[in-house]
Design a protein that fits this description.
The complex is a heterodimer of chains A (235) and B (229). By secondary structure, chain A is an alpha/beta fold. Helix content of chain A is 20%, strand content 27%. Chain B has a 10-stranded mixed beta sheet. Chain B has a 3-stranded mixed beta sheet with strand order 7-6-9, with no helix packed on it. In chain B, 17% of the residues lie in helices and 25% in strands. Chain B is built from 5 helices and 13 strands. The A-B interface holds A 34-37, 60-62, 83-88, 95, 98-99, 107-112, 114-115, 117-118, 129-137, 177-187, 214, 231, 233 and B 55-59, 72-80, 91-95, 97-98, 101-102, 126, 131-140, 143-144, 170-174.
């Protein structure tokens, strides 16, 4: 007798290295995290070992210290960085390569970055906002006045991949985050064609109460249990 | 004048400034605190005033700093310092946090400033020609909240004025600052012009005028900001 096929696609991947293996030269990849937490550190470490170049990275910051995104930038795998805070004093690896014109930078106000990703995930191609009006970031952009207030047109941001970090994932890909470690992760999950979630804990489907789900499973394509779950706060 | 503004005991300390700002926040306000002196403000707010602190990394209701050894790094504010959420706090993602900010739901942002102009323009994110700093959430906050309190030293280390007729540094936003808290004075930005509301105890009006480029409106009575000995 023929066995019934499980129609639910298995999203569990056995290693971080396997999880990032589809990332190609020229891919746009968003990376979650803010203030040293909610960073998919194992996926980032795997990306360091993955042979790929000319990446466009979307991140809140430009990497700090030596590890993670900084190490990726140091390997010269990143062609362009889209971020809200580029020149933190600890972002010296990015800074040096930026000054020697080896990496491009697009700085985006943090709320506009979050909203561009949200729009990208929600099928909204562009939106108007008053953030950055009358500043250098308005230059070259369409403006329009609504109710007497000047606003600037910003475009949605979609990525090929999102590397995100969660606290719990179930087998279907429903996610929860711990404390303020959610930050950019949920919105990046929505804006990516392929979202890869690194989790601290893997639960059976149904073990997360439906009303406790913070990222619904539909936004998640691959799940990997982080090989090293130790919180590594960037200094 | 013999007054040395670089190193003078008469200048307000960060703690003095934070205490003065804490008194200024109206009861029941929701407030976002920037990095630096602004984060100190939370330490001096009377808990009975019902003020709610919000951080753009996704927390409404940040509480006191945890004791050493009791920090949980999963709970941080936007200055990446560990915090304890208060009872009734809520936690959410970045898009939600900035919907609150950009949607006009936050009453006051207290932001560090590099320069402020007489009509309330704010420059606080970078210095021209230098690869330093970043925008972060400053532009969203400056345009999104109802009121911006700017916090800065009155002049730079090199003696350059920071309260100006027009900012020379790249702007964060135009016409947003309502009050400026410096180590010398409290200045209110109004339609009529900047009003010198308060002076640090021991300093005088002439001194503030000397170190401010715009012409200050001097009220009949100027009060003094107390300083801890």
């Amino acid at each position: 007798m023929q066995k019934k096929k499980n129609i639910l696609k298995n999203k569990i991947v056995s290693s971080s290295l396997e999880a990032v293996s589809e990332i190609k030269d020229g891919s746009t990849v968003s990376i979650g995290g803010f203030g040293g937490i909610g960073i998919p550190e194992n996926l980032l470490d795997a990306l360091l070992k993955h042979d790929v170049q000319d990446l466009t990275i979307v991140s809140n910051h430009a990497g700090q210290g030596e590890q993670g995104l900084s190490a990726l930038i140091k390997q010269k795998k990143v062609k362009k960085l889209i971020c809200s805070y580029a020149f933190h004093k600890n972002s010296y690896i990015f800074r040096d390569l930026f000054l020697s014109k080896e990496i491009e930078l697009e700085q985006v106000p943090q709320g506009t970055l979050a909203e561009r990703l949200r729009a990208g995930g929600a099928g909204i191609p562009a939106f108007y906002t008053k953030t950055a009006v009358d500043t250098d970031f308005e230059k070259g952009k369409e403006t329009r006045i609504f109710s007497g207030e000047k606003t600037v047109l910003e475009f949605a941001l979609q990525t090929d991949f999102a590397l995100i970090k969660c606290h719990q994932a179930d087998n279907l890909g429903n996610l929860t985050y711990k404390g303020t470690a959610g930050n950019f992760n949920p919105v990046m999950a929505k804006a990516a064609k392929i979202t890869i979630a690194e989790t601290e804990l893997l639960l059976k489907t149904g073990e997360i109460e439906p009303e406790s789900v913070q990222t619904p499973s539909i936004y998640v394509n691959k799940i990997v249990v982080g090989e090293n779950i130790e919180l590594r706060s960037e200094k | 004048m013999s007054f040395d503004p670089k190193n003078n005991d008469l200048l307000l300390t960060p703690k003095d400034i934070a205490k003065r700002i804490a008194k200024e926040i109206p009861d029941g306000s929701t407030v976002n605190l920037g990095i630096g002196i602004p984060t100190l403000v939370a330490n001096y707010v009377d808990p009975l005033k019902g003020i709610l602190f919000m951080a753009e990394n996704g927390i409404l209701g940040t509480g006191p700093k945890p004791k050493e050894g009791e920090e949980d790094l999963n709970y941080i504010n936007a200055s990446r310092e560990p915090v304890i959420p208060i009872k009734g706090a809520s936690i959410f993602d970045h898009a939600e946090a900035f919907s609150m900010i950009r949607g006009g739901h936050i009453d006051i942002a207290i932001l560090g400033a590099l320069q402020v102009s007489e009509n309330g323009d704010l420059a606080n994110w970078t210095i021209p020609g230098e690869a330093r700093g970043g925008i972060g959430g400053a532009m969203d906050l400056a345009k999104g909240v109802k009121e911006v309190y700017a916090v800065m030293k009155h002049i730079t280390k090199d003696g350059m004025l920071k309260f100006l007729k027009k900012c020379s540094y790249p702007l964060t936003a135009k016409k947003v600052v309502t009050k400026i808290f410096t180590d010398m004075a409290l200045i209110e930005i109004t339609e009529k012009g900047p009003i010198l509301k308060e002076i640090a105890t021991g300093l005088n009006q002439e001194l503030i005028e000397e170190f401010s480029e715009p012409k200050l409106i001097i009220p009949n009575q100027t009060s003094f900001i107390s300083k801890e000995k």
